[in-house]
Amino acid sequence: MADPDIRRALYVLFARLLSGAPDAQLYRKLRDGGLRNLAAAQGIDLTSDLLDDEDDQAAASELGVEWSRLDQDVSLCASDYPSGASDPIAALGAFLREHRLQLGRGVDLPPDHLAVALGVMGELAGQADARTDPDSVARARAFFLRHLQPWSQRALSELAARAERRFYRGVAAMLSAFLESERIRYQAA
Fold this sequence. Notes:
The chain is mainly alpha-helical. It is built from 8 helices and no strands.
């Protein structure tokens, strides 16, 4: 991508969307911003299922109900998608300690939650894109290939399959496509 901030921003946005339902203000920004147009260009619908999608508060409320249901029905934690590797929570903790990174304060999600991994990846990708030194790039690549890529597509497939609203099916599809492009990028490196 041409602008290093774009990759970081996408990771952070997807982390936010998978940590809870958007409020009315965020929904309005998504509806009016370029993400909806980008999604539409890829044949993905990020609208809510309301007849009047322009009512931000009603859309946010509808998506809040959907998110509550999905949060109960779908796991977005690495530990629920065994890959044959070591305990993902311990492995993530070891990676963070090894690279002197820490999770932000106030994160009340499990450390192996997809939203947390996306947030960490956003920081690492931002550092790698800004610095372009081999250590930063290697750190981002290692985190992606070890802690995100092995299980995230299965979680997103489950999310898309269980979502009743176009919005969450669209988020899953957009994130899946983004992570696939990242996988190609990091495997080619």
